[in-house]
From TrEMBL, chains A, B:
Stored CDD domains: HsC9orf114-like
Record protein name field: Methylase
Organism: Thermococcus gammatolerans (strain DSM 15229 / JCM 11827 / EJ3)
Coiled-coil positions: none
InterPro entries found in the cross-reference section: Alpha/beta_knot_MTases (IPR029028), NA-bd_OB-fold (IPR012340), Put_MeTrfase-C9orf114-like (IPR003750), tRNA_m1G_MTases_N (IPR029026)
Length: 255, 255
């Protein structure tokens, strides 16, 4: 199965400090990485931070050794030093290349050959016709050669800035199971969930509006769940609900 | 039942930025408040931030209207503006006093009477002999009179800076059930937990050392549990593990 999470572009509407804004997006990235979320959708909810959120999330998802190639200096990344690294399987450290190893890389044409930066001391020769960011398997170490490959471990998330409200964004994702989180939802302990299979989405509201209020009735969730029954604080923030909810669903998934 | 959580004084050892350090302690406070934790114990683990953590946690737990009375200006609180409020039941807003209402207050002697600031426009006359921070029930509105009372809702947490290593701190807490969280622990899904009753403690490790490594073998936990099976990141931070673990135990508790 694959996880999709839906967060609003108004995630940061109550946060002014630019360092804390960056750190908060970092919390979202960390929560998604810890629990192996494959897709993060940013939906339109009256906020102005969609691009900022996307940029920070994508920066964090990119292996350290590819960041300079893929991200020019930009104001959105000014405080990105405060966020902790993801340390997911696709953020490999430098080391001796090993045949069979899968590494994330960036491929580019140089003369008549294609080379890839896979985070090692030397560039790898690419066997195949691919450019840009891609996943590679090492097939030879002397000379260092790679072929395009499919990852076998958790390989980070993709970020989708939908530019559309929640209902339209959910439709775009073609989910097999759509879950909303809401304080007014049914207690997660009292619901019999089907097996989590295929594309499973979990939607979160914004700091000021719940999911159901943002939805406008144009989409039918399979479940509206309260994952934090008996909460003692008046509100639970999006990034808090995200981590708490993923922690619970991590125990429910079976694969 | 009552929750006790145990966090190390080295919680912030990987965080240099003073604003982010404050924000992180705020995450701990928020997680504990959302799930109604009654006691936060800070144990000695080679860190230097015990007092800082305690001060920020206590500041956040104090109702806004009592903060000026209870906290002098101090460097630890310089960045406390970045942390979100707890908005627990004991952080009451101003309003018209109601007979029967329970409010947190600060009582002090003035002449021959004792008055309490309970966050309203006027001071309340205290019937009873109490000074300092305390919980009161309004028994009359004209004149405004209060008596000492016991809270009936979740009323915040107490912070204990033990000054001792984890094992000694755990002993001090006189727990009925002691749980450690560890990546190397048993999968929480595969363990039959007893009913959560009495004083239930959950211990968390530090950024660089797990609970079992910090324990030194001087204490016997009832359970060592992995609450984040199949984590996809190499490490999970204390504040992340805290929120995730409390979210899961919130579904297990029965009262």
């Amino acid at each position: 199965m694959a996880w999709h999470v839906f967060i609003p572009d108004s995630l940061l509407e109550e946060t002014d400090d630019p360092k804390i804004r960056t750190y908060k997006v970092g919390q979202v990235a960390r929560a998604c990485a810890i629990f192996g979320v494959e897709h993060i959708w940013i939906y339109r909810a009256g906020g102005r931070d969609g691009k900022f959120i996307k940029t920070v999330l994508e920066y964090m998802e990119t292996p350290q050794y590819l960041r300079k190639r893929l991200f020019p200096l930009m104001p959105e990344l000014r405080y990105v030093g405060v966020v902790p690294p993801l340390r997911t399987p696709h953020h490999k450290l430098k080391g001796k290349p090993k045949v069979g190893e899968i590494r994330e890389g960036y491929a580019f044409r140089k003369g008549r050959k294609i080379y890839a930066d896979i985070g090692l001391d030397e560039l790898a020769i690419v066997e195949g016709n691919i450019e840009g960011r891609a996943t590679f398997r090492v097939v030879s170490t002397r000379p260092l050669k790679v072929v395009p490959a499919k990852p076998v471990e958790y390989w980070g998330y993709r970020v989708h800035l939908s530019g559309k409200p929640l209902a339209k964004t959910l439709k775009k994702a073609h989910l097999d199971l759509a879950i909303a989180t809401s304080r007014k939802g049914r207690d997660v302990r009292k619901v019999n969930l089907p097996p989590l299979e295929g594309e499973v989405g979990i939607a979160f509201g914004s700091p000021r509006k719940g999911v159901m209020e943002l939805l406008g009735g144009e989409y039918e969730f399979d479940f509206v769940l309260n994952t934090i029954p008996n909460q003692k604080t008046k509100t639970v923030r999006t990034e808090e609900a995200l981590l708490a909810t993923l922690a619970i669903f991590n125990l429910i998934r079976r694969d």
